[in-house]
Each structure stands twice: as structure tokens, then as C-alpha cells.
Amino acid sequence: MIANYPLNTWYVAAFGDELGADGVVARRLLGTHVVLYRRSNGTVVALEDRCVHRAYPLSRGHRDGDLLVCGYHGCVYDGEGRLLRVPSQEYAPSNAAVRAYPVREDGAFVWIWLGDARAADLRPVPNSPWNLDAGYADTRETFRVEANYLLLHEHYLDLTNVFLMYPEAAPPGIEALPQLDEVHVSELSVAYARTLPRATLAEWEAEATGLPAETSCDRVEEGAFVSPGLHAQRYVIIPVEGERAYRLVRLQGFTPETDTATHVFLQLARDYETRRGIVADYLRAMFHRMAARDVEVLEAVQSRLDDDLLPRRDVNVKADRAAVRARRIAQSMVEEEAGLPVFD
After folding, report:
1. Locate the Rieske domain: which residues (predicted)?
2. 83-117 in b/e burial notation, b at 16+ Cβ within 10 A?
């Protein structure tokens, strides 16, 4: 069975601040066990988490400066994965090595390429459609969902569930989201935008921005399937035309662990009240609660799909336009890697 995630694309392996000067981070990514650590010069190493001698996880060993020592028989590896020393003999076997994976650190994220290493330089790491500059403050969180990564992309490409799942987040007086203003599709990405009717502020909007609750505002909501490994959303509050807008950007790295589990790397950035820690704490707590509800729903969907003996059979509606296109893009990338004919 072919996995429904492409290999030849960049995925988030960690936040940069997870990798300190000493320890290691172990994760299963795209079905592969990987160990990550940061060298003394600041660069990040990603190796197959499996000693060549007896398959013991290297992440259960220890660091010796920039080297990694297996905790079973003491085999020593460098940052390129080469076996340098075997304590029980004079020389290490020639050409013995674990696989080293291409990595790139960009912004908050450490990206990994788990496909054909020769192709890694041909495709840059994904960029957010809205580059975060020094004027933004952010919070970060990692969590794991027992659901396929495409279910997450589809979930966040259709926010019409907001009134059922997070009614406290909806602006007062708005009872349904309008149709999408536009959906842009490129070869490898899908982006959408919608404008909301003018309304006063929801409680969380007033708390976060510091604006009076009775302020009447326009809002623009945008989202993008940037790549199989990155989802981006932007929510803009506009009090009066011509005045400053309040921008909240939600970047989510979706990295499959397996076909039925996904690592989520959430970065929540804002360009307002950037020096107020209480605002960061408020937004972090709110979006954590929302993410917990998302996880509950997505895991329930995955569980039902796992139990269903028949092929997936969904009825799509107008709100699914962006989600359907994103799934087709991911499917075509998988089929292309497998050498299968691609039909769209």
C-alpha cells in the first residue's frame, strides 16, 4: 500500500528552540525514526535513529560534543552519520554509516527532507504567504494527533464549523461565514480568502487587541495549503478603513508520523500588543483549547475511517473547494513519486 504523503518535499521536524546545546530530540517522521541535535557551531543534524550494529536507537545514547554515542555497545557517530569508532576493536568497518538527512533551519522551524536527497536542493523550504518580520511576537506549541495529515489540512481549509465547534470565537451577530471571495490554485498550493460582515468584537478579539468591545470592525480571513507540510492562516481585524489593522498569523507544520498519526508544530504570531506577555498567554490558552477540540474531532473521524471496510465515501459541498484541491495536489505528488500516471 502506498502512503498518501509524498516524500520529496520538506516537512517540519522540530522548532529550532527544541534543540539545545546538549540533548537530542527523537521523532518518528514519515514512518522513519529520526534523531536530531544541534552541533556546537549551531547547525542541526538529523540522522537515522538506528545503530548500524544492532539497531539500538541512537537517541537513547549520549552526546560527546558534536558526536553521538550509542548506548548499547558505545559505537560513535559524527554529524554526517559516519561510524567513527567501535570500542571493542581497533578500526570501525569501512563505509559503515547511518543515513543523514538534509535539514534547513528557517525562522522558527527546522525542516527535514526524507525523500531522495539529490532532489532536496531543487526545492526550497516552504515560506509563509505572509512573511513574519521583527514586528511580530509569537508563541509555539507541539502536539500529536491520531489522524492522517490530510484530515488536518481539510479541517483548517474549511472553517465553516466555527459556529458549532468554537462559538465563543465568532464575532457577535455573525451566524454563518460568507462564501469564499476567491480560491487560488497553483501546481503545489491552494489559497483562499473571505471577507466577513462588519460586526463588533468577540470577547477574545477585544482582550487580545485592547480595543473596546463595542468597536465595529471588518475582518479578512485567509488560509493556504502551502505544501503538504505547511498550513497557514491569517486573521485580520480592521476597525476603520485607512487605520491600522490587527494581524494574527497561525502557521502549522503538519508532519505525518504514519498514515494515521500526525505531528503538529503550531506557531501563533501577532503584530499587536507584542510586548504584553498577558496577551501571549491569553491567546496561547485560547488556541490550545481550540486545538484540543480539533484533535477530538479529527481522531473520531480517523477512528471511523479505520473501522470502515469500504473506501472513503464523502459528499463534498461548496465549502470544500479548497480542501478538495489540496487533497488532489498531495495525491498527484504521491502518484508522481510512485511513477503512476497523474490525472487531474
Report:
1. 10-112
2. bebbeeeeebeeeebbebbbbebebbbbbbbbbee
- Three cell numbers, residue 211: 480595543
Q: What is the pTM of this model?
A: 0.94
CB-facing half-sphere around the CA of 200: CA atoms within 13 A: 7
Mean pLDDT across the stretch 19-35? 96
pLDDT surpasses 80 at 166? yes
Is domain 137-337 classified as CATH 3.90.380.10? yes
Show Cβ contacts of residue 54 under 8 Å, excluding neighbours closer than 6 positions.
Answer: 72, 73
Delimiting residues of CATH 2.102.10.10 domain(s) in the chain: 10-122
Number of Cα atoms under 13 Å in the Cβ half of residue 244: 7
In the block, cell 481522531 appears at 299
How many Å apart are CA 63 and CA 53, to the nearest integer? 18
Among candidate residues 234, 250, 247, 249, the one with its CA nearest the CA of residue 194: 234
Q: If one looks up domain 10-122 in CATH, what number appears?
A: 2.102.10.10
Strands (E), the chain: 10-15, 25-29, 32-38, 44-48, 62-64, 67-69, 76-77, 83-85, 103-106, 109-113, 137-145, 182-185, 190-200, 216-227, 230-238, 246-258, 261-270
Contact yes or no for 297/155 (Cβ under 8 A): yes
C-alpha span between 276 and 242 (Å, rounded): 25
Is residue 333 over pLDDT 90?
Answer: yes
Per residue in 292-319, pLDDT (tens digit) is 999 999 999 999 999 877 666 678 887 7
Single-letter amino acid code for the residue at 9: T
**Residue 76 backbone dihedrals phi, psi, to 5 degrees:** -115, 130
Q: 25 with 64: CB under 8 angstroms?
A: no
Residue 225: strand pairing partners = 190, 231
Where do the CATH 3.90.380.10 domains begin and end in the chain? Answer: 137-337
At 261-280, the pLDDT tens digits run: 999 999 999 999 999 999 99
Contact by Cβ (8 Å): 29, 137 = no
